[in-house]
Structures are given as C-alpha cells and as structure tokens.
C-alpha cells in the first residue's frame, strides 16, 4: 500500500452511500450480494447504485462477478485490511506495544488489532 492507493480508496469511500454499500458487503463476506439485493437493502434506486458500485469497483474495493444476468459484488476484504495496516503501521513510532491501551479502548475487533510478531 502506498499513499496514492490509500488516497484513492479513501476518496471512493467519501460518499455516505458508497460507505454504506461497502460496509454492507463487508458484512456479507465472501458471499457478497447481487446489485438488486444491495439496492433493496439500502433503499437506493438501481441507477444511482450503479454509479456508486462502479466507483468502488474502479478503486479496487469491490470485486464483481457475472452470474447469468446478474452481477455479484464482494468487498475486497484483504485490501481493506491492507489499508488498515497502512494507517497503523507507524503507530507509536513503530512500537505498537506502546499503543496497547489505545487499541483496547477502540471499537475495533481485537482480531483486527493483533500485533505483528
């Protein structure tokens, strides 16, 4: 991960709708959802959703797979975790054990916050 890629990812998530779509797809994991189900779940008109899905896909945050006449979208969770790692790799001057209390105080799942060994 580099600054340019991280900036692109954050720019693509800078819309409330795109952030909702991405969070929904993270929740569904590897099963993902077809576009119509995303539109229904978030009460977004399909034409509007299409624009947002395209933006997220072009940024690399979503993977899309053709299923007959439907498109199934999945969050690229490894990329999301790489972005989190990029943001936190310099935490506490490279000595993350100094950040233990802050990590415990965060709302982030402990499995995401595991220290590198």
The total beta strand count reads 3
Write down the Rg: 16 Å
Helix and strand content put the structural class at mainly alpha
According to CATH, what is the topology?
Arc Repressor Mutant, subunit A
The biggest sheet, with number of strands, parallel, antiparallel or mixed sense and barrel status, is:
3 strands, antiparallel
Oligomer designation: single chain
Helix content: 40-55%
Count of individual helical segments: 6
State the distance separating the first and last CA atoms: 20 Å
Describe this structure in words.
The protein has 117 residues and is mainly alpha-helical. The chain has one domain: Winged helix-like DNA-binding domain superfamily/Winged helix DNA-binding domain (Arc Repressor Mutant, subunit A, Orthogonal Bundle). It has helices spanning 3-12, 16-28, 35-42, 46-59, 77-88, 100-105; strands spanning 33-34, 62-67, 70-75. Strand 2 (62-67) and strand 3 form a beta hairpin. The relative contact order is 0.13.
Give the structure's gist in a few sentences.
This protein is mostly helical and 117 residues long.
Blueprint (SSEs and pairs):
Blueprint: H1 3-12, H2 16-28, E1 33-34, H3 35-42, H4 46-59, E2 62-67, E3 70-75, H5 77-88, H6 100-105
Helix pairs in contact: 2-4, 3-4
